[in-house]
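Dear colleagues,

As part of the handover before I leave the project, I'm documenting each prediction I ran so the next person doesn't have to rerun anything. This entry is a single chain, and its sequence is reproduced below.
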Amino acid sequence: MEEKDLSRNHLISLVKIIVSASLIILLASKLGLKEILSQFKHTNLNWIGFAILIITMSNILGSLQWHLLLRAQNINLPFMRVVGYYYVGLFFNNFLIGYIGGDAVRIYDIRKSSGNSSSAVSAVFLDRFMGFFIITAMALAALLFWQNMLQSKTALFVILAIFLCWMVSFLFIFHFNLAQRVGRLLRFLMNPRINGKLKEIYLSIHSYRDQKATISVVVIISLAIQFIRIMVHYCAALAVGLEGQLKYFFIFIPIIALVASLPISIGGIGVREGSGVALFSNITGFPPEIVVAMEFLAYLIGVTAALPGGLIFILRKEKPEFNDQTTGGIQ
């Protein structure tokens, strides 16, 4: 069974590499690799430095958000330890090709510290969920505010559909009777052990319903995080000499972030740049080669800001060993 899982994970990793490589080759052949690379010749290092500074601020805010969600589950760890765990998760997200991502690492760390796998999973889940919900809401708000500039309403309808899916998910998470009905159905479809584990995790997530003050603060922090991450892309644009209107970044970056988060590529490489060209170049007329340079630079800024997580991981005395138990049965 383990060999079959390993082969499947290797296949998934290979597919992701192929997708990223294919998209990068397609962009390079269409736009010209020399033209793309030439955009980096006169890069403004001041804007890159500022972008690294503000994305570091967003990572600290992300640590605070996760810290609050953990405290709501009665997992009271020192803030600096949570920051360390968060950075290790960022490092794994950015540098590992395999199926073990930063979320699995974070779940492992919290489970190891608290002994509570369900609470570890629920805190990481809601941390992720809140980020996706907020960035979708920001994209929808921006599209509604500036919809007159759109030649097609397709993007608006797609984001609206995603937003409605998140709202239904919210209803499921916090409406116990609805979840009970779904649970009865799953009881006949799933292995009893898995079903029991999922119920335990659901109840842990559902308990946030009584933490309205915490959730309100988390929403505010998440808004600040997403605002900063949009500004990182704007700084990357300024660094390569692209001076576009800021409103375009508030419309397009949340959409690009959602597309790049799909588990079909390595760190969103290729997908991020391709969707950037589709939106910025096709709608605003920005030169496609400079858009590719901007998006790849924004990615490199994020990778650079995650490097401290690698150092923290190397300095650890104990290295994680991942399996169903260490990640709460979720992979």
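The CA atoms of residues 104 and 331 lie 7 Å apart. The chain has 13 helices and no strands.

All the best with the project,
I.
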